[in-house]
Amino acid sequence: MNDRKRYSEKNVPAKRRLKWQVKVLLAAIVLVIVIALVVLLLSLAGGTTINKNASSADSSIAQDSSDISTSGPASEELSSESGALSKNASSKASSKAKSSAAASSKKADTSFTGNAESVLPDSSLTPEWAAKELDMWYLYYVDFDNRMPENYVPPVVKINTKYTRNSGFEFDSRCVDQLRRLLNDANNSGVDLFVYSPYRTYASQKTIYNNRVNEIKNKGKSQAEAEIEAAKRIMPPGCSEHNLGLALDFNIASDSFTGTKPCKWLMEHAADYGFIMSYPKDKVHLTKVDYESWHYRYVGVDHAKRMKAKNMCLLEYRQFLTSIKNGK
Ligand SMILES: [Zn+2]
Q: What is the pTM of this model?
């Protein structure tokens, strides 16, 4: 009995040791499970990150490829009629193509601003910048008091789009692409816009002007009276923006254009392509030319947008730039 008791008493610490070992073993198992879970969770999280990276990489690649796919038709459009046709096709293909084309046309906009930059805020306009811009070809100004020399010939090229009604029409080569883009975008938006009368040589302006003077004289007016009357609509040679190669009449040179869909489209969008209406209704006292809703000229996107925002005609805008040049 004593032995058994001793034996059993001896066994008590052994049983405790066993329980302790079991506890340690269980703790170790739990620890291993916890570590395994943590590792699993970490690997899952890592996988998500990788997947995210992969998907963002995919989307940026997709973005790049869409840019590449639209830069094709956009650049073709700038250079030829076939490009305009391919843009038509891509626009009809899907709305995605349309938005991509819009994105690429925004890109193209900035490359034709004249100073190749986005619109500068007034606060950053310096006298040096104003002096330089005032001498740039896209801000050339002509009127009765500022006649261009008879021998001035701008660097014109054929406009060459389906939106002209005459294959011989010409425009200044430095901004003809902007005109093509304007025409393509308008027509792709369902606006029937086309070129009616662009560049005129000094000689052809002289002929048109003289014909108009003679028409008025035939109604009983004197030469002087007829010249004043004619010049309200047709400038004498050397005074017309058409002679600069930078201006054109859209659709029809008549008051019937006013208020039409193409007229409204131009008023809203022309500045985005660097064009401004030369003879607005509220500037007749400054331009000395009757309101011509169909006559636009190129000044560059930067200047066109600023002129529109300030509601300035080119004469006023040149005065504004002159005041900046003079540090006022
Ligand atoms: Zn005109």
A: 0.63
